[in-house]
Amino acid sequence: MPRARAPAPAEAGGERPRRLRSSPAIRGLVAETDVRPSRLVMPLFVASHPSAAPPGLPALGRRTAEATAVEAGRLAKAGVRNVLLFGIPDRKSPDGRAAWDPKGPVPSAIRAIKASHPDVGVLADVCLCEYTDHGHCGVVVDGTVDNDRTLPLLARTAVTYAGAGADLVAPSAMMDHQVAAIREGLDEAGRTGVGIVAYAAKYASSFYGPFRDAAGSAPSFGDRRTYQMDPRNRREALRELRLDAAEGADVLLVKPALPCLDIIAEARATFDLPIAAYQVSGEYAMLRAAADAGRLREADAVAETLGAIRRAGADFVVSYFAGSYVPGPDGGP
Ligand code: PBG
Question: How far apart are CA 203 and CA 142, in angstroms?
Fold first, then answer.
């Protein structure tokens, strides 16, 4: 019996990609991306009183500033060294003034974290929607959100968070020129070392619903389509990213994540700034609901989606799964 000759690589059928998939060890050698906890940011909600999370969505509960610091310490121990803070104030108002109260929930939590866990990286979301009584992301004049009257309020809020010790501020209001206004405010306040993670390409998405329930920030009239982007648009995202880069953003963030993998990939290919993505509350809720219904295995689905977001080009990912994600030895499923 003549021995079967292995086809030369050049012959049809000669390429055998399965050779490099033969075992976890070999797959680990050639994996192109990984999802380490150091690449994840956990969002946390701060209020003066704790509140239970909605059923099935444990990451959407509210904590006091002190409890937030304890949680940040727990996360850091598990390798998730960065948190993104949102505040829910005791009182909402037309201009959202509680946002820049140095005694408000976010500055209190920043100080508590930095006092007990100085190595934790603290990102602070800068927006007014949790603080305004109408739930819009800026000041409302004659029924519309007034861009230029909102800018100094966002800058003041960012300076307050920087003063409390935030490492990075993350403006998410989608006002034109907000990055420039915040950069200028920070620099004037002597906070040149505080960076800006710009929610640059932020779409008007149906996937923010669970967040708005958790933060009590649903708009009381209208919607956010006059300032957040139309999900049908791609070129517009590139324009927004370019403008925020030009205004001085240190990181460009795309949001939501899974519906925007094309935008993440294009942002990565176009800019040399770090790119971030936000796997938002609705993405979290979809996966949680499917897992609770026994339709998929949560750990595998989470690793796959986070991996896809990293593969598309995100350097880091904000995700409600950050606190429960346990990577395999290769930083994958
Ligand atoms: C504040 C803000 C929102 C989210 C992040 N920052 C809500 C919104 O724009 O309505 C959404 C995050 C999520 O859904 O997890 N403007």
Answer: 24
The CATH homologous superfamily to which domain 34-251 belongs is Aldolase class I (3.20.20.70)
- Alpha carbon separation from 308 to 58, 92, 99, 211, 259 (Å, rounded): 23, 38, 34, 23, 11
Is the CB of 211 within 6 Å of ligand 1? yes
The pTM for the full model equals 0.95
265 sits in which H/E element? helix 261-270
Higher pLDDT, 333 or 266: 266
Answer whether 311 contacts ligand 1 (Cβ < 6 A): no
For the Cβ of 137 lying below 6 angstroms from any atom of ligand 1, the answer is yes
Q: Where are the domains of the chain?
A: 34-251
118-137 pLDDT tens trace: 999 999 999 999 999 999 99
User: Which of 106, 127, 223, 224 has the most ligand 1 atoms within 8 A of CB, as the residue to mutate?
Assistant: 127
Helix (H) or strand (E) holding 255: strand 251-255
pLDDT digit string, tens, across residues 211-267: 998 888 999 999 999 999 999 999 999 999 999 999 999 999 999 999 999 999 999
